[in-house]
Automatic annotation (TrEMBL):
Transmembrane segments: none
Catalytic EC class: transferase
Keyword Transmembrane helix carried by entry: no
Designated name of the protein: non-specific serine/threonine protein kinase
CDD domains: KaiC-like_N (cd19488)
Species name: Qipengyuania vulgaris
Keywords for the protein's UniProt record, in alphabetical order: Hydrolase, Kinase, Phosphoprotein, Repeat, Transferase
Taxonomic classification: Bacteria, Pseudomonadati, Pseudomonadota, Alphaproteobacteria, Sphingomonadales
Length: 500
């Protein structure tokens, strides 16, 4: 028998799916079988939902499941499952403390509760597991055992006793804990084979944010760090932190047209797949219109595209585009264009990255517009996180061969302009749109100041937007300091667009 145990010790157990695709991705396949795991989090973090997901995945795999509850009733669990559209048929629910267990007749004062009730509770757990002989077990929750023990040593001994018992039963166990212990009490972490921590926090405005972290998974590799998740009808939806180095795809890097010959010339031949372009300028100068012109050109080539709108309402954008002879409605109806209104107060950064990844890998999107980074910034806890998130997201899109357009609004109209965040160093191409004044008229200019993939045109061109779309003029040769916002005009200029 001892030789058999030694042989089994060296074997890596099979990975059991948790029923949550994103979590299984983080765990590199799932939880190793026949181990004991701790799922910790404050009340409302999603522990029960995760545990039910785990048992339902076992039921789908024809594995028996047992949910032992010390705090909730069976009716509450059934109701919680029903809210997700689940049925718990085939999963055994066991209330360790019956309703009459709280009656005064069952109270005793001769012995300390930790000497009697704790032992009875642990024996009840063991007895039920021996009777049901399940493959997957959930114990909810440890806070009741901790209160009964009233002594750290006695509590640890009982948890160790349960761990050794489960180790002989060939079952996989999730133990839930609501963090009612001292903040620095990590004795459960040392006992469990793995620890999954769930967190949720509320900001001053907007919906609460949830994230999880695998603190420990003994002897196995996993994707560390924080990963955003949401609780939706159907259970937990986890958005694994995007790691660009894990995603590579071959693609044709030939430049594609923007739909405007003059703009292609400015860019040195057009937009190159696998690169991102930052379109920067003050409000109303034409950043969105320029991005939509590039978008329509891709749609006309038969490519699929996605437009993530943070600032405007969809109806406003569609009306404006239709007035400029760039109607997007039929592309949306055909499914070729995915136009989404994004509320930064409701969407976490991880969820947005997951949305983009799904659009690329599942929907075949080839061009993406983010309008604008200013609003996207407000979804982040700090500027540093925005830069790190954008770096990973842009690296991922680059390796997938996606043409990415990002719009960045600047504060001010003329003179020195200021941005909420500077990510120009992350961009492969930077396009500046500016206002300038000539002959008593407010005009607009366009210049490409950086392109990593081609020898771009270094001139500044005037452009105009009317009902026929964008019209780009010849290089402005008689102006200086246009980009500074304080242009100097000398000797006239025959290259100005007429009729403005």
């Amino acid at each position: 028998m001892s030789n058999l145990r030694n042989e089994n010790r060296g074997k890596v157990p099979n990975a059991l799916p948790t029923g949550i695709a994103g979590l299984d991705h983080i765990l590199m396949g799932g939880l190793p079988a026949e181990r004991l795991y701790l799922v910790e989090g404050t009340p409302g973090a999603g522990k029960t939902t995760l545990a039910l997901n785990f048992l339902l995945a076992g039921r789908d795999a024809v594995e028996s499941g047992l949910y032992i509850t010390l705090s909730e009733t069976s009716e509450e669990l059934v109701a919680a499952a029903a809210s997700h559209g689940w049925s718990l048929d085939g999963i055994e629910l066991y209330e360790l403390v019956e309703e009459d267990g709280f009656a005064s007749d069952n109270e005793q004062t001769l012995l300390h509760p930790s000497e009697v009730e704790l032992g009875e509770t642990v024996r009840g757990i063991i007895s039920k597991v021996e009777t049901a002989n399940p493959s997957r077990v959930v114990l909810d929750s440890l806070s009741e055992l901790r209160l009964l023990a009233q002594n750290p040593l006695r509590y640890r001994r009982q948890i160790l006793a349960l761990k050794h018992f489960f180790a002989k039963r060939n079952c996989t166990v999730l133990i839930l804990d609501d963090r009612t212990a001292e903040p620095n009490d990590l004795q459960l972490h040392s006992i469990a084979h793995g620890v999954i921590s769930l967190e949720h926090s509320a900001s001053d405005f907007g919906s609460e944010r949830r994230r999880l972290r695998v603190i420990k998974l003994r002897g196995l590799k996993y994707r560390g760090g924080y990963h955003d998740f949401t609780i939706e009808q159907g259970g937990l939806r986890v958005y694994p932190r995007l790691i660009a180095s894990e995603h590579h795809r071959s693609f044709d890097a030939s430049a594609v047209s923007t739909g405007l010959a003059e703009l292609d010339a400015l860019l040195g031949g057009g937009l190159t797949p696998g690169t991102n372009t930052l379109i920067s300028g003050p409000a109303g100068v034409g950043k969105t219109t320029t991005a939509v012109r590039c978008l329509v050109s891709a749609l006309e080539r038969g490519e699929k595209a996605a437009y993530y709108l943070f600032d405007e309402r969809i109806a406003t954008l569609l009306t404006r585009c239709a007035a400029l002879d760039m109607d997007l409605a039929h592309y949306i109806e055909s499914g070729q264009l995915d136009l989404r209104q994004i509320d930064p107060a409701e969407l976490s950064p991880g969820e947005f990255a997951g949305t983009v990844q799904s659009a690329v890998e599942e929907d075949g999107i080839r061009l993406i517009v983010i309008d604008s980074l200013n609003a996207y910034l407000h979804a982040m806890p700090s500027d540093n996180f925005l830069v790190l998130q954008m770096h990973e997201l842009l690296s991922y899109l680059s390796q997938q061969g996606i043409v990415s357009l990002m719009i960045l609004g600047q504060h001010g109209v003329t003179g020195e302009l200021r941005s909420d965040v500077d990510i120009s160093y992350l961009a492969d191409t930077v396009m500046l749109l500016r206002y300038f004044e000539a002959e008593g008229t407010v005009r607009k200019s366009m210049a490409v100041i950086k392109t990593r993939t081609s020898d771009h045109e270094r001139t500044i061109r005037e452009f105009n937007i009317d009902s026929s779309g964008i019209k780009i003029g010849q290089p402005l040769t008689k102006f200086e300091r246009i980009l500074s916002g304080n242009p100097r005009y000398s000797n006239g200029n025959g290259n100005l667009l007429e009729g403005i």
